[in-house]
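Example record used in the benchmark description.
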Amino acid sequence: MLDELLAARPDLRQQAEACAAQLLTGAGRSAVADDVEDALQGLGIEELDTRAGYRPGRGYVHPAEAADEILDEVLQPFLDDLQRRAGFGMRSAAAELAAGILLGLYNCRHGNSETLLEYSPDYAAERASGVVSDCARLGIELPAVELLDLMPEWSAMLQ
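Model output (structure tokens):
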């Protein structure tokens, strides 16, 4: 039925493709930001019990290093999804996902006590810088003007 509509109204094709891409992206920017924030803020300091300190075969692992590793493991599925969307040529969907990741990281920039972010105060900014670099490398154009309004403390990173 959609094919028939687009055959009759070819001027709607671009809009239909954009809508289809949005449906394929799943959650929107705000939902992604919430998911990233929840995932990172939801990691309590007790996570360090099994990863920090002396580890046989590895030596001493500083709590900040262990915190970074655990936080990276939680963030990685979002970054993998960004790579996947870019690889499929879904540039607008990838840009929305990247914006959501950046907003989620921005919301974690101050960390909270009793979370792993407390042990890694620069985590959010460092990973956000990596996301911006990844987007540039993948040819994903971020909605910089919108992000500058939403993330004023990171304006230098976005320009």
